[in-house]
Amino acid sequence: MATPAAPAAGDNRPPSHLFYQARLRRPLASRAEGIYIWDETGRRVIDGSSGAMVVNIGHGNPRVLEAMKRQMEAATFIYRLHFENEPAERLAAALADRCPAGLDRVFFVSGGSEAVESCLKLARQYAVATGQGSRFKVISRFPSYHGSTLGALSVTGHAAFSAPFAPMMHEMPKIPAPTAYLDRDGLDMAARGRRYADMLEDEIRRQGPETVLAFIMEPIGGASTGALVAPDTYYPRIREICDRYGVLLIHDEVMSGAGRTGRYLGGDHWGITPDLVALSKGLGAGYVPLGAMIASEKLVRPVLDAGGFQHGFTYAGNPLASAAGLAVLDEIDAHDLMGNAARMGALLKARLEALKPRFPFIGDVRGKGLLLAVEFVSDPETMATLPRELNAHARVVDLAFERGLIIYSRRTRGGIDGDHFLVCPPMIVTAGEIDEIMAILDDTLLALARELNL
Ligand code: PLP
């Protein structure tokens, strides 16, 4: 059992009744605006990870605050069994407009795990309603993260998250995430993309196609893989394989969706229409807990005809969250924030790439738009990882925080081993603010190299 961390030196606050993980207590945040957060002493920190890739339109946005205030004055909570709710109706229509044709049925929830959970349950109810009750297995990838509820955890490919809960959850089959950048097999990227996709076909056959319900993946990886983008050939091949075996394709867009990558959905970069989409994070953009499952009428109709979807959460689709979500979408459109994410993302990625010659422990820079990651290696030729005991992914976060920049990190990659950090500022970031981020990162990496002797 982990022992509780002692309060940081100089911290006179009484012990907190909150508990999360065994960590040092952080400073209290007192205010946030744009890409900045101020702590109680007045120190300003750049929110270079938009919280946990959530605050896509920045902090303190007046349009969203005003819309929330107006909705709060009208009605904060109206239950869907008693009344229709106009903001939820309008937000559902606005989301359907932004999704690929055919994906036009929206089911609201309050977070990413709930969105994934909803996809798994709708898929299963659809299979039962259409006489395919033998299908229940959901194949996913490792590493991956799909949420912390037991269903979402069963498809999450990371033992550290799931192991403590066995046998409460049903462990689902996993295939490797498409870490093509690590392969030294002499194949070109197109061939590697097809090879990784074919692992899905192999797994479906191994499991028995009549038992496989769905395949879930993040089109652009989040924290688990460090913004992993597969070769272009991967995406259409995965869609083809799912179609061939009658397996539903679920895109977990909790982190990659809502515009952060420069398109509304990550899968839009490859023109893929999945059967189900899980959205959250940037949908409420940190103003309200909000998520959604988006599906086609083809999936929803048989479930409704068979008696309805046996699922739901009390707070789902409440008018306050929906009004905030609508204002977030308006803000994205009004300032072309997806265009800005594409442009500023390209600039930031180029600046991160340019660090490589000075910091040879940077093995890879990847991602799309403002979902970007930097991976550390001990040798960029072999892409061998840094020794685990250096704890580089945690140290880089702490060193950056001391210098006034928040970044986000994990130690996972193919085979669940490797250090990376994500730089994902809000979609409002300017070129001048990217200069600020890069100046701090540069100094952070110098300190890391000194400290770990890299
Ligand atoms: N799916 C992905 C890809 C995520 O990144 C996350 C959270 O980080 C989740 C699901 C779970 O979302 P939440 O923490 O809102 O439940």
Mean pLDDT: 94
Can you say what the CATH homologous superfamily of the largest domain is?
Type I PLP-dependent aspartate aminotransferase-like (Major domain)
Could you give the order of strands across the largest sheet? Answer: 4-10-9-8-7-5-6
Measured between the Cα atoms of the first and last residue, the distance is 33 Å
Count the E strands.
Answer: 14
Rg (C-alpha, Å): 22 Å
CATH topology (fold) name of the largest domain:
Aspartate Aminotransferase, domain 2
| Number of spatially distinct domains | 2
Query: What is the CATH architecture term of the largest domain?
Result: 3-Layer(aba) Sandwich
Q: What summary fits the major beta sheet? A: 7 strands, mixed
Task: Please describe what this structure looks like.
This is Aminotransferase class-III. The protein is α/β, with parallel strands linked by helices. It folds into two domains: 29-60 and 336-452, Aspartate Aminotransferase, domain 1 (Alpha-Beta Complex), CATH 3.90.1150.10; 63-334, Type I PLP-dependent aspartate aminotransferase-like (Major domain) (Aspartate Aminotransferase, domain 2). It is built from 13 helices and 14 strands. The protein has helices spanning 50-53, 62-74, 86-98, 112-129, 150-154, 159-162, 189-207, 234-245, 297-305, 319-334, 337-353, 392-402, 431-452; strands at 29-33, 36-39, 44-46, 103-109, 137-142, 174-176, 212-217, 248-252, 276-279, 291-296, 362-368, 371-376, 408-410, 419-423. It has a seven-stranded mixed sheet, with helices on both faces. Strand 1 and strand 2 (36-39) form a beta hairpin. Helix 3 packs across helix 10. The radius of gyration is 22 Å and the shape is globular. The chain starts with 28 loop residues before the first strand and ends with a helix. Mean pLDDT is 94; it is low at 1-7. Pyridoxal-5'-phosphate is lined by residues 52, 111-113, 116, 145-148, 218, 222-223, 252, 254-255, 280.
